[in-house]
Amino acid sequence: MSTPSPVLRCEEIHKKFKSESGPEDLHILKGVNLSVASAEMISIVGSSGSGKSTLLHILGGLDRPNAGSVYWHDKSIYDFKQDKLADLRNQNVGFVFQFHHLLPEFTAIENVTMPALIQGQNQKEAEHRASELLKRFGMSDRIYHRPSQLSGGEQQRVSMARALMNSPSIILADEPTGNLDEKNTDIILDLLFELRETEQVSLVLITHEKEIARRCDSLYSLHMGVLEKVE
Ligand SMILES: Nc1ncnc2c1ncn2[C@@H]1O[C@H](COP(=O)(O)OP(=O)(O)OP(=O)(O)O)[C@@H](O)[C@H]1O
Q: Where is the ABC transporter domain (predicted)?
């Protein structure tokens, strides 16, 4: 039997940034390779400034490398025009960031529904799924709250529900529990692991916390521009 193709793969990614303090570019990623299978959960650790967020942005098509390729379901994302890439991103990838980027003037349910409406889905159906997701995240009595009326952990859960709205095949999470207490960290992580079982979602998780990283199937470390499998 042939092995299924990975959900997400990158090959020989190089990323450089201009240095403000000298003529030499900063060479942040030096030939990074990574492959993520369906329902696989991987974590990436590395010191501050090692390039973890940069790599995640490249994997999600939010930033372009200087060299190398990114494939979603074996299709190079650079073969798509910008607007098609945005559509594909909206359908395939759920982003969760530490600072959740919820829209302040919209309620929790409006924030969660947004990705589906952008895709042209029926509003009633989208609202139904959004409220189901919020319920699953223990937020049913907060759906009409605006972000400023929610705690940090609650905002994070809304952000997670929004990331799942379009049933992405992969979640890219950048320190999703970075500013949360232990209880909320556990809620978010348990939900992520449950999603792997129920929706076969894959996960790339950036974290500073080794204990959280170890709960994933594999642990990678990004050091001096090179990504290595640790466990
Ligand atoms: N747009 C940019 N222009 C110049 N340098 C940048 C840019 N974006 C990132 N960098 C540099 O690239 C390096 C990697 O940044 P990145 O945010 O990916 O690190 P990180 O591993 O996620 O760090 P942290 O754990 O602190 O969030 C840093 O040294 C940063 O200063």
A: 8-230
ipTM of the predicted assembly exceeds 0.90: yes
List residues near ligand 1 (CB under 6 A): 17, 26, 28, 46, 48-54
Integer angstrom CA distances of residue 191 from 111, 132, 133, 134: 19, 14, 11, 12
Task: Write the burial class of residue 105 (CB in 10 Å: 0-12 exposed, 13-18 middle, 19+ buried).
Answer: exposed
Q: Which atom of ligand 1 is the closest one to the Cα of 55?
A: 18
Q: Whose CA is nearest to atom 30 of ligand 1?
A: 49
**153-188 pLDDT, tens digit each:** 889 889 989 999 988 999 999 988 877 788 878 888
Ligand 1 atom closest to residue 222's alpha carbon, by position in its atom list: 21
CATH code that applies to domain 8-229: 3.40.50.300
